Model the fold of this input.
Amino acid sequence: MVPRFIFLENTMKRILLICLLCLAFAGCTAAKSSNANSSAPAGSSNMADEAPDFYYGFDDVLIPRELNFNLKESYLMDTQKFKCGVQVFEGRVVVADLIEFFKNNMPRDNWTLVTAVTGEKSTLLFDKSGQNCSIQIADGYTVKVVVMVVEDKMEAVQENIGVVK
Done:
């Protein structure tokens, strides 16, 4: 005859083993779901509190939300004949992703890519009627982005009313 306490000891071991297996399984599924969320592409917005990309100063140059505006190095000038400005942004981003961001989003605002030079300091040049845009990207611990836009208001007005040069 087997003493009763040995039976209870084996039952407790089984219950403890089942609880440990359940905890391990729950931990694995939680880690898998958090990794799936963290590997989402930079452009996707699957979190409600994530700020969207934004237009800053120029209403047709979209800026990624990961960049912060540097007021000390930026300026805008608006006259009757032209508008120009330099806007500086900084942030911890991957340069290749940033270049792709501008190549993909500038055409949505009717910009045409004229040329792209990539390297440690990259430059993207865009053009659209009466406007030119240069985006310079300097790689480093913090990526620095300089957006320069020049708009010839007289040329834009002439194109809108159909004046041929």
Notes: The longest strand covers residues 68-78. Residues 26-48 have pLDDT under 50 and may be disordered. The helical segments are 4-38, 95-105, 153-161.
